[in-house]
Specification:
Elements: H1 4-13, H2 22-85, H3 90-117, H4 119-126, H5 132-136, H6 138-157, H7 161-214, H8 228-234, H9 236-259, H10 263-276, H11 278-299, H12 305-338, H13 349-371, H14 377-394, H15 399-423
Helix pairs in contact: 1-7, 2-6, 2-7, 2-9, 2-11, 2-12, 3-6, 6-7, 9-10, 9-13, 9-14, 10-13, 11-12, 11-13, 12-13, 13-15, 14-15
Length: 438
């Protein structure tokens, strides 16, 4: 039976006890997201050592180009998770998924050929002329990422959270193993980057087998599937929201880099920012559970805010001791993890931790409001995105003042998000779209 081996393996990897209740399932996804972040950090350290300064710089540039192209994947995942969680017609889901799989596999193959033919111009555009074959892999890797995102969204929608968690950790572990092997084979930065595409493809095949077993055969049902155009239209709001969130999460490092008194101060702030954002990865995992569950309950006329409150409580349970540790032993922590030369921002670390904890709550509010099909919250996000750089610039070169400014602006927009979230309750079930041909 398709997917049987993979399901048995995942059952052992992620025990049932961890996903037997709402809180357990949310915690399981949060743990998976945190583990993925730890593995990614290990990958960064290993690749930096194996590739050296120039090689790692090229790989980082390739990854940056991929991440820009990959943002739509996150929006598609949100859209699929939201809609599938409220659709009783899994035949329609299977048909739509099959259509997207065919399109994205064809797109990956086509862009691979185009990338090989235009590898030198693409490498020049990214600024990695020394690794043209790595540049050739950016577009097909982005297509594979879109496929993986669609699959994860469907899995969220049908409640297969264990598989979602497995895919996160499995992708990160596979990237580390395959990338290291390709570097060892002499492929350098090209191998390190292409290892990501290979890893995503492997996970996509595993998820595809499991989805094939979980959903009806789409061969006789594809005519009932929603059109790809409608899906893309529905992904616009998540795309804008996630792009604004990414800006709010990272713009502080950019501002400090430009106006810090010394390079050491900028580097120290960047290190402190990485430590402070640990809590954000907890919220990312929680959001994978929150969005489909809130959408499902709200669509049924129930109060989806109970799921929101539960996930916010988990963030608080993690954030309070984290900020306390940063306040009491921030300098020791930064020295131990990043080295003694990167502890200059230790006095700002507790405030950064508090700001990122607020941001983590804001991320959950965004996921909830997307679930209940709200759009008005985009205005609050946009205002915060515009205001935050100016607030940080006004703080000057004092890193603690920058952290306090960040805390102030995060608190302001998240308070608005909280008000919008707790005022909303449920939305009326929308009629199923008419069959469309593609």
């Amino acid at each position: 039976m398709p997917g049987l081996f993979e399901r048995d393996f995942i059952q052992r990897l992620l025990p049932r006890a961890a996903t037997s209740s709402d809180t357990g399932r949310a915690l399981g996804l949060a743990a998976a997201a945190m583990a993925t972040n730890v593995i990614s950090l290990a990958l960064t350290i290993v690749f930096a050592r194996l590739l050296g300064t120039s090689g790692y710089g090229a790989m980082a540039a390739l990854m940056s180009a991929f991440l820009v192209l990959g943002i739509p994947g996150q929006a598609l995942q949100v859209e699929f998770a939201k809609r599938v969680s409220t659709s009783p017609d899994h035949g329609r889901v299977a048909g739509e998924l099959a259509r997207w799989v065919r399109f994205l596999v064809a797109a990956a193959a086509t862009t691979a050929v185009v990338g090989l033919l235009l590898r030198d111009p693409i490498a020049g555009l990214i600024g990695v002329e020394e690794v043209p074959y790595g540049a050739a892999g950016v577009l097909p890797t982005a297509c594979i990422w879109l496929l993986l995102s669609v699959q994860r969204g469907v899995l969220q929608g049908i409640g297969s959270y264990r598989l979602v968690g497995f895919s996160l950790m499995g992708e990160a572990l596979s990237r580390l193993a395959v990338g290291t092997a390709l570097i060892g084979a002499g492929l350098g930065a090209t191998g390190a980057f292409l290892g990501s595409g290979v890893s995503m493809a492997v996970i996509a095949v595993i998820l595809g087998r499991n989805l094939g077993a979980a959903l009806p055969d789409p061969s006789t049902l594809s005519s009932r599937a929603r059109s790809m155009r409608d899906t893309l239209r529905g992904a616009v709001v998540p795309l804008v929201a996630l792009a604004l969130l990414a800006w709010l999460q990272n713009v502080d490092v950019i501002v400090v880099k430009h106006q810090a008194a010394t390079d050491a101060s900028a580097s120290s702030y960047a290190a402190a920012s990485v430590a402070a954002k640990t809590i954000f990865w907890v919220s990312v995992g929680l959001g994978l559970f929150l969005l489909p569950e809130a959408a499902r309950r709200s669509h049924a006329g129930q109060d989806g805010r109970s799921v929101l409150v539960r996930t916010l409580g988990i963030v608080a349970l993690v954030a309070v001791p984290m900020v306390a540790v940063y306040a009491l032993a921030g300098q020791l922590l930064l020295e131990t993890v990043f080295g003694s030369r990167l502890d200059l921002a230790s006095h700002a670390l507790p405030w950064l931790g508090a700001a990122m904890s607020i941001l983590a709550c804001g991320y959950l509010f965004v996921q909830y409001l997307l679930a209940v099909q709200s759009r008005i919250f985009l205005a609050a996000l946009a205002v915060a995105a515009v205001a935050q750089p100016f607030v940080l610039i006004a703080a000057g070169t004092d890193l603690k003042a920058v952290a306090l400014g960040l805390l102030a602006i995060q608190s302001a927009w998240v308070a608005v998000m909280a008000a919008l979230s707790f005022r909303s309750r449920a939305w009326a079930p929308a009629p199923e779209p008419q069959a469309a041909s593609q």
